[in-house]
Amino acid sequence: MVTRCRYGIESERHDGNRLFSRMDHRVYSDAMNLSFVRPNIRSMQGYTPGEQPGVGERVVKLNTNENPFPPSPRVMQAIRDIEPEQLRRYPNPTADVFREAAARLWNITPDMILAGNGSDDILTIATRTFVPPGGALAYPDPTYSLYSVLARIEDARTITLSWEKNWDLPVDALLRSGANAIYVANPNAPSGTFVSPARISELIEKFDGLVLIDEAYADFAEDNCVSLASKYDNVVVSRSFSKAYSLAGLRFGYAIANPTIIQQMMKVKDSYNCDAISIAAATAALLDQDHARMTWTHVKQERERLSSELTEIGFEVLPSQANFLFAKVPDGDGTGMYKALKALGILVRHFDRPGLKEYLRITIGTSQENNALLSGIRELLGKKQVA
Ligand SMILES: Cc1ncc(COP(=O)(O)O)c(C=O)c1O
Q1: 266: which residues sit within 8 A by CB, 6+ positions away?
Q2: Distances (CA, A) of 153 to 108, 109, 176, 186
Q3: Which atom of ligand 1 is nearest to 143's Cα?
Q4: DSSP code string of 230-294
């Protein structure tokens, strides 16, 4: 069904379970005079998030790296305990209850923490604080595609450097880039690969600008870089509640850095970037480490099982320290496999770009979800062999 609306064409594709609905603004924007829009915004592409089916739609959702388990029961209790007065008033602008809890967890001081509306908010604040218009942001590529979007919004350049062999950090090339800031996702997305804190320290020690270590997936890894935020002045570590704490729908993340760096970032953030509910819920989640760790243990066990079963089927699976796998499909037809799985109601992530399109990025689900994925893949490969 296609319907006209005030700002363009709203198109909805009905294929049984109404997965896709989007606004197509091109019809009107092509005809409009957009000279009052900043040229860098006019010419850029926005970030494309993964597909989000509506609540209740029955799909096996392994495409946006959510935790397959529900959040801690203490989170739900904290939300139920919210008083009307907490909603009538503005929230605490710096989420101090959360900062104190996180400081205790990491054995640092609360002034080393800045709370954000998801770790994307932390990345936005960091880019606005450290990457000037006309400046440059460097990162190893491929990585999280939001980085380039954030740089473009600041009217800054991006400098992308290829990963070294075995997804090692291109330290020398990054140092030669002359960028104002370097972003490193660790574990990286979409590869899931991990760089040791010692290797990242080599970069930090020789670099004059800011190094941001995006640790959205670090709770599923064997190590992390939090201690580097205490050791070096030019480091920001960003953390997410979307994966490790099963709270992607809540929107909460935080940064850890030297107090002076945090003070600078505080000037840039929206005054009330985290709402009262998310502050209470994220604090409750952080305080229930037992629950969170139980989910990490299960995800890591399933990661090893899925990785070896996919390898047996003929996939080439990269070593992952995240809650997803990046796997090359046996005949290299990633696009075909992605579409065929989707037709079976199994969503995985596919990147239609050279060097990546032979791969699927598969979130680790519950054992049942992973089994459904494996059966779907076996069925599709079986059909191909017969054909
Ligand atoms: C590497 C990386 N960093 C940050 C994020 C954003 O996380 P959040 O939901 O906390 O904004 C993602 C989301 O997928 C990610 O893959």
Answers
A1: 94, 114
A2: 33, 32, 24, 24
A3: 1
A4: HH-TTEEEEEESSSTTS-TTT--EEEEE-HHHHHHHHHHS-TT-S-HHHHHHHHHHHH-HHHHHH
The pLDDT of residue 9 is: 36
**186 and 320 Cβ atoms separated by less than 8 Å:** no
Residue 330 burial (10 A CB sphere; 0-12, 13-18, 19+): middle
d(CA 240, CA 256): 12
Phi/psi at 211 (5° precision): -110, 120
Whole-model pTM: value is: 0.91
Pocket test for ligand 1, best of 120, 183, 195 (most atoms within 8 A of CB): 120
pLDDT at 133: 97
Pocket lining for ligand 1, CB < 6 angstroms: 65, 118-120, 144, 185, 189, 214, 216, 240, 242, 248, 253
Residues of the chain with pLDDT under 70: 1-31, 387
Strand pairing report for 181-185 and 210-214: parallel
Domains in the chain: ranges and CATH:
2-32 (no CATH), 60-69+291-386 (3.90.1150.10), 73-288 (3.40.640.10)
Three-state DSSP class for residue 148: helix
Check if the beta carbon of residue 112 is closer than 8 Å to that of residue 103: yes
Distance from the alpha carbon of residue 144 to the mean position of ligand 1, in angstroms: 8
| CA of residue 85 to ligand 1 center, whole Å | 32
pLDDT of residue 54: 82
